[in-house]
Design brief:
Length: 413
């Protein structure tokens, strides 16, 4: 079973630099059973990028998917009008819900597209759409068994448990602790899960204070459930729109003190079960698609960072990919999204064919992501995609390798 996060933000999309590492799209999680079965949990704005990825993957072949709705708050349905596979004849999607029945479910899904909210309605969608009420306590679909439990949330919500390929995945978002009935039923559902995705929108202090009754939970409750239920990995989810990356890092850190196998859900994060492998996939939308010449390399890199107080901080890292317009590098040091970084990388003779060339340039970080592993580091590091903002200087060789045609294509002198 493979799980991929396409939207992890709660309440409203937040396309802001300060939270771009965890991501600003609202909830959408893709689950792939080893036999190829596609399951989609919730249809927040992350669904749009999932749709584009599916079209790339399937090409002209039909796409069939099982969609499970936890509830119908806006942040969990707003991606539907932008999910391109729905517009293509030959595709089929099976929507499932516990809370809305039959036509009511169809209305809840499609109602957002009626005039005047959207220029086309769902009749313009070529894909076949079926709507199912979940009544029994579990169903089986090709290769997976799915069960659910009610959650404590305004207008109700449900959690889903997916068992397949010898693994258990539990998705529990939009819930508030404190209702004995709901607390108990969620614990029953989460028993022995390999992965529990859990609502951690608020801090424990907020939950005791003015956010009590808003229908969300905290990392602390997540760690309690994880421990009590023998969960292997806890993934904190539904990040508050006001929490930037650094703040979410702090919540994850606190959670790890209580339950070491905790992490924050981030767009692009991929988990492979039951082995528990983690891949930090490239962001679907943020992926650098520039076609300009690039040098694939893993070279030591020296950085001079500007700290939050304006002070200069020396740091080290590795350049992975350098092009005329940008660079991707990893570093264990903190890089700030809005602060340009001075970089110095030594390109080897294999690339330049005229001895070592030292490249120095200033780059502005565009996208930051936390990588749980990287060559040469045992600790989590930051991956940084940055855009060059100042012309480079080259020294030690004659000039920059970029002044000419791709040096890797040239014969050594
Ligand atoms: Zn929500
Ligand atoms: Zn909600």
């Amino acid at each position: 079973m493979r799980i991929k996060f396409w939207g992890v933000r709660g309440s409203t999309p937040t396309p802001e630099r300060r939270n771009s590492r965890y991501g600003g799209n609202t909830p959408c999680v893709e689950v792939r059973i080893d036999n190829g079965t596609l399951i989609i949990l919730d249809c927040g704005s992350g669904l749009r990028a999932l749709g584009k990825s599916l079209l790339r993957e399937f090409g002209e072949h039909p796409i069939h998917g099982y969609v499970f709705m936890t509830h119908f708050h806006w942040d969990h349905i707003q991606g539907i009008p932008f999910f391109l596979p729905l517009y293509r004849t030959g595709n089929a999607f099976f929507f499932h819900s516990v809370l809305r029945k039959g036509l009511e479910l169809q209305g809840a899904v499609e109602g957002q597209m009626v005039n005047p909210y959207f220029p086309v309605d769902m009749t313009s969608m070529g894909a076949v759409r079926h709507f199912f009420d979940l009544e029994a306590s579990s169903i089986n679909l090709s290769g997976a068994s799915i069960s659910w439990a009610p959650l404590n949330h305004p207008q109700e919500c449900v959690a889903y448990r997916i068992e397949a390929d010898g693994a258990v995945f539990v998705f529990a978002t939009d819930t508030e602790p404190g209702s004995p009935f709901h607390d108990r039923s969620l614990r029953e559902l989460a028993q022995g899960a390999d992965v529990l995705v859990y609502d951690a929108q608020y801090t424990p202090e907020q939950l005791r204070g003015d956010r009590k009754g808003w229908g969300h939970s905290s990392w602390l409750e997540g760690t309690r459930i994880a421990r009590e239920c023998g969960v292997k990995q806890l993934v904190l989810f539904h990040h508050d729109p006001d929490n930037d990356d650094a703040f979410v890092d702090g919540l994850v850190e606190k959670a790890r003190q209580e339950f070491p196998q905790a992490r924050g859900a981030a767009e692009g994060l991929e988990l492979v079960l039951p082995q528990g492998d983690v891949r930090q996939a490239e962001f679907a939308e943020g992926r650098d698609r520039r076609r300009d010449r690039r040098y694939r390399l893993e070279r030591p890199l020296r950085l001079a960072l500007r700290g939050p107080g304006g002070e200069r901080v020396k740091a080290e890292g590795f350049a992975r990919d350098v092009s005329r317009s940008g660079i991707y590098f990893v570093t264990p040091s903190e890089v700030w999204p809005d602060e340009p970084v001075d970089l110095e990388v030594v390109l080897p003779d294999e690339i330049t064919h005229r001895g070592e060339v030292v490249l120095r340039f200033v780059a502005e970080p565009l996208r930051l992501e936390r990588l749980d592993w990287a060559l040469d580091y045992s600790e989590p590091v930051q991956g940084v995609a940055a855009q060059r903002v100042a012309p480079e200087e080259a020294s030690a060789g004659e000039k920059s390798p970029e002044d000419e045609s791709d040096p890797s294509e040239k014969k050594p002198a």
